Amino acid sequence: MMKNSKIFLATLCSCLISILVYGQEARTYNGLVQNAETRAPLSGVSITVKDAAVQTDAEGKFTIQANPGESLSASLLGYETFRVQLGNLTTLQISLNEVSAELEDVVVIGYGTAKKSDLTGSVVRISMEDKALQANTNLLQSLIGATSGVNLESRGGASSEPSLSIRGQTSLSASDRPLIVLDGVIYNGSINNINMNDVEAVDILKDASAAAVYGSRAANGVLLITTKKGKTEKPVIAFNTYAGVQDMTNNPMRVMDGEEFAVRLVDWDWQSKVYNWYKTNPTDASTRPVRPDVTDRNVVANYLRTLEEKENYLAGKSIDWVDEVLQTAPMQYYNLSLQGRSDLSNYYISGSYSDVEGIQLNDRMKRLTLRSNVESRINDWLKINLNTSFSNIDNSGIPASLATARKASPLVNNYIGQDTYDIYLGGELFQPYPLVNLYVDNSDVSKEFFGLGAVRIDAPWVKGLAYDFNYSYIYSNRNNNTFNSSKTPAGVSNRGEAVKSPSEGKDWAINNILSYSNTFGKHQINSTLLLSTEGRSGSGSSLNASGFNNEVLGYNNVGLAEVATVASSAYKENSISYMARANYSFMSRYLFTATIRRDGFSGFGATNKWANFPSASVAWVVSEEPFFKRDDIYLKIRTSYGKNGNQGIGRYSSQSRMGTRDYVYGQNTAIGIYPGTLGNIELGWETTSAINAGIDFGFMNNRITGTLDLYSSKTTDILVRRKLPRMAGYADIWTNIGATANKGIELDIKSINLNGAFRWETSLTFALNRDKLTRLYGDGNDRDIGNAWFVGEPLGAIYDYEMAGGVWTEEEFFNGQVLEGWYPGQFKYVDQGDKDGVIDPTNDRAIIGFTSPSYRFSINNTFLYKNFSLSIFINSIQGGSNRYLANNVENVNPLYYFPDRHNNSAVNPYWSPLEPTTNTTGIYNVPLRQSGIYQSRSFVRIQDVSLGYSFKNELLQKLKMQSAQVYISSKNPYVWTKWQGWDPESGASDNPVMRNVVLGLNVSF
């Protein structure tokens, strides 16, 4: 009874208190919201109670009407939501703790910056700090698989750059390479000239709205590269280095050794007799010619074509030419930088040196870079920037030919390392010495200077008004000199040949930018006006000389040559642009961006030099709405539409140009001038119109964040080099015809799976793209077989004979089931169309697949425990059933041409009547029709793996160091694929992708 009385009294008191509290009148509450760590005031914080909502002003202050006892919440992107029950105290001081900087990151959007949370377009930032432990040799390598929609494929060679495109192919003949912007100005140089350690971040504009500020050249997306600035008041010296080796990625490739090469000649001769026997229409194998005894080396030797091959075969001597032209290649990199800042200035100075060798002998790249970024604030309203860089790249030397090595006879005399080598192995012109490039004197040195001067004036009389002026200048030159002595194929017939090819280029750009940014209560406005002019000019010349009686000086004294020819060229082009952009935000919840750009380019026809490129985008931060009750979830919906242009053609493609030709006139040689190309005064802009819909999300207080984008684009007035009938007198003409469509889906997800002493982070990307040719030369089902362009089909169609599966068998032949003119050991092809029993190119070729991938994905896992870090990055490109195909016929099947003289691949055994196969032909390979053998290049690759250790603070203090980290890293250590070539990414190329392993050190003082 007593217990029930206590419960009753407690309930009664609670009810009375509630009546007293809620019966009071609403009060005015004032407050200040600040960052819990820095104590800086926070503007734009949403303050909500039951029936009201306001935002903090620029000073972090707010005023709101509420009843005592109600719950007040304060929320801002990137901060934990704060809640308090209101009472009699009407002045509040609220501190918000940061939970994730992801959505508050400042990204570069072109002629300005914006918080990631304020974006309305598809923009992604890749921080180079995350790539510090990777064994990259250039900047583009670090972007592979880093985000969806940015398509990079590795290439082989010491100085190679990965192929690059954004959101697939949109053009037929014009360039699909994205626009590169370096520190705010358009950059036409080589990515190889940029030191990776100088780069702070790369921002990628993927959709039409985000890229519209660069309208005329943004149809293929934009990469904005931002270099480093000083960060700390105390000067910091940083040193980064790694050293390691490169070799071939794992692959099944193998060519025939000496024994296989010799037996193959026996089988070639025997199978030629068998095929002649097939032509007699036998009904069984009883009279088939007998294969010689290949176990008798003397019998085999009699089939070899040259005496030296016979002698070397009987002596058991053989050369693995593939092994001879390849090496385990060393690589090293050094970078030293100094950075710091004060209240009025900041600076960053660096120098780097790279020495990278490729796996093919004589393939080497040595690079030196210098950079200086200085920024100084003169007073409250004036700031000056000066960024300069210099690069020197030495690509001297011509790599030993892997393609030649694959086909070289392994039974020739071994003169490797001797000056008495045979220029042509065995005296046969189609077998040049695989190492002959080592004896070619080549000097190939490129230099580039980049300078950027910028002035910013913040108008003191108008808050938020600023004027930016910047001027950039790029000077580049290249000296490529080569001397082929009389001991090389290019110089043997003319007593040596020298080629000198100097060239230079000059690019400049001037940008005038007027911007205004301000906040009016709940409204935020950011607007930009631009006037930009660009100019590019350059020149080049070439000198060819031959007939050297004295070859000692080579290209250094071409005056010793008896015959010399010269040529020169020059170019100049200009462009001008106007742009206006307006960003509007209401309560940081409703966002709108509109852009209009007008461009003029001197390279187009007189009637079409100008074009307009508009765009608009909107976004809604749903999670900021009062009805959205989940404070641990972030959700933004955005959509955009815009137009961009492509001017990726030759600068004089709209004009008719003249050519020259020598001819005999009387007793002399005269130079004649003739029309060489046909101009088109109506040549104009290729235009891409695109729509994008996306969602940005964050869960569990942004421990899981990501973006999902759907896009669709249409490209019209495509720039095409159209072939002309021979009677026209010209081979082709540039014109605007045709249209393409492009659509896709992109997904990026990042998560913090575990957070504590052991931290585990994961990032995942997925991208799927589909393109299609919608119009070509006219209406209907147009097609251009020569270029493999077919209306209604994806770009990159493969048009060839369709394999019916396997090869014809002797059983089918003897039973009369083989098509006329075809024999056992030859591929079966589908008899298309009218099934007339004849395989011909007009009626029996079809679209059998496509070169473009089906989808791409990547997964990166990073594990942190105490001072250790481990990162494992997996990258994949998949083709599905009929995509991402390439012709691999030379690597998986006997050669069509000279299979009896060239060496052949030994990846698969060739067909024989005694040992039939289903996927290869006989070594005597002369069918009525030939086709490629298309294999899937699909792969899953361990792209990067790295293990690092950071030294403890106690040791750093003793060594007087700020930080120190050692690591071991590997790029491309293993790949899973069914591709039977050197590497699936490089395809059938004989310049394969490499893998490496390095040991590195990063320290700072």
Could you characterize what this model shows?
With 1005 residues, this protein is mainly beta. It contains 10 helices and 50 strands. The chain is globular, with a radius of gyration of 34 Å. Mean pLDDT is 88; it is low at 1-23.
How would the blueprint of this fold be written?
Layout: H1 2-22, E1 27-35, E2 46-48, E3 53-55, E4 61-66, E5 71-75, E6 82-85, E7 91-96, E8 106-108, E9 113-115, E10 123-127, E11 150-153, E12 163-166, E13 179-182, E14 185-186, E15 199-205, H2 208-211, E16 222-227, E17 236-248, H3 258-278, H4 297-301, H5 307-314, H6 321-325, E18 329-341, E19 345-357, E20 364-377, E21 382-394, H7 402-407, E22 441-458, E23 465-484, E24 497-520, E25 523-548, E26 561-586, E27 590-601, E28 610-621, E29 634-646, E30 657-665, E31 668-677, E32 686-699, E33 704-716, E34 719-723, E35 732-736, E36 739-754, E37 758-775, E38 783-784, E39 789-790, E40 797-801, E41 803-807, H8 810-814, E42 827-829, E43 845-850, E44 855-865, E45 868-878, E46 885-887, H9 889-892, E47 934-936, E48 939-950, H10 953-959, E49 963-977, E50 994-1004
Parallel strand pairs: 1-7, 13-16
Antiparallel strand pairs: 1-4, 2-3, 2-5, 5-6, 8-9, 10-15, 11-12, 13-14, 15-16, 17-18, 17-50, 18-19, 19-20, 20-21, 21-22, 22-23, 23-24, 24-25, 25-26, 26-27, 27-28, 28-29, 29-32, 30-31, 32-33, 33-36, 34-35, 36-37, 37-44, 38-39, 40-43, 41-42, 44-45, 45-48, 46-47, 48-49, 49-50
